Structure formats: C-alpha cells, structure tokens
Amino acid sequence: MLNIQDSILIYDGSFDGFLTCVFQVYDLKLKRVLIQKDSESQASLFGKQNVVVADPVKADRVWKGLGKKTSNAGRLRIYYGFLSEKQGVENLLLRYIQYVFESRLPVDSDFSNPDVLELSKVAKSVGREKHRMEAFVRFRLTKDGLYFATIEPDFDVLPLISKHFKSRYADQKWVIYDLKRNYGLYYDLDKVEIINLTLPEGFDASKTSPDYFAVEEIEFQTLWKDYFDSTNISSRKNLQLHIRHVPKRYWKYLSEK
Amino acid sequence: MGFTRIQEKLKILADAAKYDVSCASSGSKRSNTNKGLGDATGMGICHSYTEDGRCVSLLKILLTNHCIFDCAYCVTRKSNDIKRAAFQVQEVVDLTINFYRRNYIEGLFLSSGIFKSADYTMERLVAVARKLRTEEKFNGYIHLKSIPGASDELMKEAGLYADRLSVNIEIPTKEGLKLLAPEKNREDFIKPMIKVKNEIIQYKSEKKLIKSTPLFAPGGQSTQMIIGASGESDQQIMWTSNYFYKKFELKRVYYSGYIPISYDSRLPHIGTEVPMLRENRLYQTDWLMRFYGFEVHEILNESHKNLDLEVDPKLGWALRNLEYFPVDVNTADREMLARIPGVGMKSVHKIIQARRFRRLNWEHLQRIGIAMNRAKYFLVCASQDFERRDLTSPQLKSLILQNTTSKYQKKLSPQLNLFE
C-alpha cells in the first residue's frame, strides 16, 4: 500500500515525459515513487501527486546516462518495454533503470534478476509484435496512387517499423495507419511523417471498396488469395499451427483470409 | 494483362511448386541503395502461413510445368495427366513486383519443369531474375532453382542476380535415384552445385579486397530430399545431408516427407500418411549437427540406423550416453550445456550470462525457460534437490514419456482407437 511519503509522478504519456520523471526521481532523491500516465491517474488520498512536464533536455541526459551503463540492446529494451503500454510498466522500467545505475557490472544479461527477466520478456513481446506488423501489413493501392495499410497492433509499434518500411518501399508513396491509436506514418518518397487522418464517413478499413481503391487492386488481391489457396497441401493440414503463427486477431486486414 | 488467363496459370503453377519446402528469405545482404524497390537485408519474414502451418515468404511458382523427364516421385512428370501451363517472363516479373509492393512477399522463388533442354530452361529463369534486377531495380529476395545439367556460364549469371540457388537431390541414395528417376544421374545435380560453390568462394575473397565486387548468391545454396519414398534409413539421409553440408558448404538441407501423388508401384501408395513425425526428428538432428556441436555419427550409426520417434534425438543420445550426466549447470562449458536434453541454445546462452551474477538454482532455470520435464534428470544446480536414484535408460525414458504429452501422441500410440 501507499504511504503518506510516497510520491506520485504524473506525466503526459510520452517517452520523453517518462524519462523526465526518472530524472526527477534522482534529482529530488525520491524514494518509493509511482509513475503514472495522466490518462491513467486517479486522484489519490495518499501520496503527493506531482505533474511532471516533459523536458527533452533532462530526458536526453537520462538516456545518455543509460548509454554509459548498459549496452545498446539493454537500453533499447527500455524503449521497447515503454511501447508495450502495459499498465504500470513505468514502475518496472524505473526499477530496471535503478538497478542499471546501481550496479557496477552491466546488468543487461542478469536474467536471474526478476526485473531484468520481466522487462526482457515484455520487450520481446513488443519485438514480436513489431515483426508481426512487418509481416502482416497489407498495402492496398488507392485511386490516387498511394499504398495504404491499416493496422491495430497490440502495442504501439509504429515508431519501430518506420525504418523497415522506408528502406523497403523507397519508390512508392505509402501510409500505415494505426486505427487503435489513431495516428499513422506517411512516406512521401523522401521522408516519413506522422499523420492524423479523418477517415471518410462509413469507411470500412477491412473492405476494399472501389470508391477508394484502384481497379487492379481487387485483381491482385484475388490473385494473392488464389496463390495462398493453391500453395496449401491439404494432406498436411494443421490448423492449430496455422493459428499459432497467424493469430485470429490479425486476420481482419489480411487479404488472403 | 489478361486477368483470368494469369489467374489460371498462377493456380496451376503455384500448385505444382508447393512441394518444394524451402521458403527461406533470410541471409542475404542486398540493401536498397538505388532507391529502388525492396530490401533483402537481415532476417527473413513470413508474410503468412498456409493452413498446414508452413511459412509463406516468397512467391513460389514454376515457370512451367511442362517437363521432359518422368521422375516417379514428381507431380509434373511427363507421364502424369495434368493441366500444363507456362508463364511468360514478363508475367512473372509483374506478379512479383505487384505482390511485393503490397507487402505480400519477400521475393520470388522460381523453379521450373525442364522443357527442351537444361540450358534452355535455365536461360528463361535467369531472364526473369535479370529483368527484375536491372529493369525494375528490385532488391527483394530471389531464389532460383539450378537446373541439373545447366552450363557453368548460366550458373554464373544466375548467381549474380539471385540471392539463393538450389538443386534438389530429392532421393537420398544413388540406388533410389536409379529406381525412381532412371533418366537422371547424380553428377548432373552436383555439377551446378560445385560451380556455384566455387564462385561464391571466389567472389567472397575478391570482396575482401575490392569493395565494389558484386554480390554472388549471398544467401548461399540449399537442397531438398524426399523422405520415405525410396525405403532409405535415417542414417542414409543424414549422412548424405552431412556430406552435402561439408562438401558443398550448403546453407540448408530440407527434408520433405513424401506426399503420395502417384499410383506407381515403386512408391508408397496414395493414402499413405505423410511421415511428418519422422520429418520433424530429421530436422531436429539437422539442428543438432549445425548448432549444437553434434557429429552425425553420434546420433546415427551402424547400431542406430533410425531415429527413435518417441523421443527427440538429443534425448535419445543422452539416454545412450548416461555416463556424461548429470551436468553441473554452474560450471559446465557451453558444449556440454548444449547437450543437456531440454536445454536449447538460447537457454545455454542465458545460463552462461546469468551464472556470472549468481549460482543458479531450479527456480532460475525454470524462469530461463528450459524444459524441466526432460532436463531435471540430467543436471545438477545450486540446490540439494536433484535426481538421486540410479535410473537405467529404459526407466528414465518411460519416466519422461509418462510426464510429457507429445503433439504426435495419436501417431505414436500403437493401440487402435475403437471409438473413433
């Protein structure tokens, strides 16, 4: 339970905001801290609530400091863990960061420490979701020559997949839009930008309506579906394995399904 | 393009290509530096999975299923009464590009029945790859089949465009090949393999000196063997496989359980079950050879010609070699850790990392993720609690089998199920 002297730090949900909280913890020598997103915080009878304003300079200092104490992979794990958006992940991250700063040895691979193991698992599931999105994004060609994809990933992986799609589809304009978090990436043949869209009234992202998509789009979807069906070997059918690889929640936007 | 015509061809030629199991798209180093389409660096991606659970990573098709050969085990054999079709070069290029742009695939795996001659066929395959690379600026993955008997010049050109080349030896033994594909001989399969291997070595050494040396088949070579079509033993299969890995520096050997497709009396009849469990055990053995430091003769030899289907090959080896156990996880070297049943290479790595901080006990090991049901009999750790009984191999085996459920249980059970 919380004690009177506990501090609750409320931040705006951004990664910079979180790192600024970490900075505060060290700067003000706070003990027993709870970090919460402003969207998740509840008024508490106990503990002092402090609103922390994201400060890129302070955030950067923490990030650089971590760089000195941990490998790149160990530091990246913190960012991945953050993007999991799991409730309370901030506190796991804080404990992990405190362990990193306390220890003389680099602790990235101390899998017998529960926080290290837990965070590496969370980061791994985020990594898996990143990889799934790189696989399951399906672009559809719109009437105005844009390759358009919608996703609803479990975790906020758009920042992680940007580079992959930019180097792969360097010669076509594309948008990958996260319907769950209502923002997307837009590549204009030069750079990737973050965008917010207002989708047309009655737009169903799981259907390819000829109102929005190119004529040949429907043909290629049919060909792909045909290909998918003919490549199956029915005497080896193993639906359990199939579903493990392609969980049903991803089927909505897969054109072969 | 004529949509229905393409649709028809695609159905026929994808169906005919599906028996080739390779779908790897990893191991290349082709990056998108020309602001073209695609990038084949880093790991492969499975964009979907078939209902039988296989990865769909490449557009895997035959250029044509017309074939002058009559190999008994092959669907496209000359004497088989099936619909035939052939793609034009441009059609394959268009399909590849359009599928790739939609993020359906990592690239193309193009194979072909042999029409007219080996070189005539190989030339067409190379033409597709050339067009993709030079006209379309395509940097995705290309896997081309090396046609047995193709000339050295064509193989060399193929390697300059392709990320991977493969020749399927299909039948693990010479005798089997003579029986099922009397028109073919092993030398024809091996010739292009040797050429490619030598070129890879040469390009690699030149690349060290001159950075601008082009890539040559950066994803290496692979091959495939059909399992259970010609009565071969597991020992014959894996020794052949080992020979190909060592001699031709292959990246992968694939094992494909024979799917009955013919009434030919030389082959298992239609309706025979695909030997999926055996295939799985062979892949496990392959992994033990390539990543776990096992020599093939430790697992399969004159006194053990076939793998035990009930237990995985590493457990099988451990049961035959109990004198090496128990292993102390806090002190053992990497090689020995890798030999503990139920401990994979990832766990080996984690154990080595974690034990620098503290001595590991059962709880640590469990959290690291080793398979305790097998591992617990073969190791000791920082705990007084370990297997003290002096169990014999058969006792151990039955103990382990009692406490595990295999997904292949149904196939293993010798009892008939009366109520099904």
Task: Describe this structure as you would to a colleague.
The complex is a heterodimer of chains A (257) and B (420). Chain A is of the alpha/beta class and 257 residues long. Chain A has 2 domains: 123 residues, no CATH class; 117 residues, no CATH class. In chain A, 43% of the residues lie in helices and 14% in strands. In chain A, the strands form 2 sheets. Chain A has a 5-stranded mixed sheet with strand order 4-5-6-7-8, covered by helices on one side. A 3-stranded parallel sheet of chain A has the order 2-1-3. The longest helix of chain A has 23 residues. Chain A is elongated, with a radius of gyration of 22 Å. Chain A starts with 6 loop residues before the first strand and ends in a 12-residue tail after the last helix. Chain B folds into 2 domains: 297 residues, Aldolase class I (TIM Barrel), CATH 3.20.20; 100 residues, no CATH class. In chain B, helix 2 packs across helix 3, helix 3 packs parallel to helix 4 and helix 4 packs across helix 6. Chain B is globular.
Estimate nothing, just give the exact number of structural domains of chain B: 2
The total of beta strands of chain B comes to: 12
Q: Number of helical runs of chain B?
A: 16
Helix/strand-derived class of chain A? alpha/beta
How many strands in all of chain A?
Answer: 8
CATH class of the largest domain in chain B: Alpha Beta
Main pleated sheet of chain A: 5 strands, mixed
Report the largest inter-chain contact.
A-B, 54 and 53 residues
Please give the order of strands in the largest beta sheet of chain A: 4-5-6-7-8
Beta fraction of chain B = 5-15%
Specify the helix fraction band of chain B. Answer: 40-55%
Shape of chain B: globular
Count of helical stretches of chain A: 8
CATH architecture of the largest domain in chain B: Alpha-Beta Barrel
The low-confidence runs of chain A, each spanning 5 or more residues with pLDDT under 50, are none
CATH superfamily of the largest domain in chain B: Aldolase class I
Structural class of chain B: alpha/beta
Instruction: Give unreliable regions of chain B as ranges.
Output: 414-420
Provide the succession of SSEs of chain B. Answer: HEEEEEHEHEHEHHEHEHHHEHHHHEHH
The 3D shape of chain A can be described as elongated
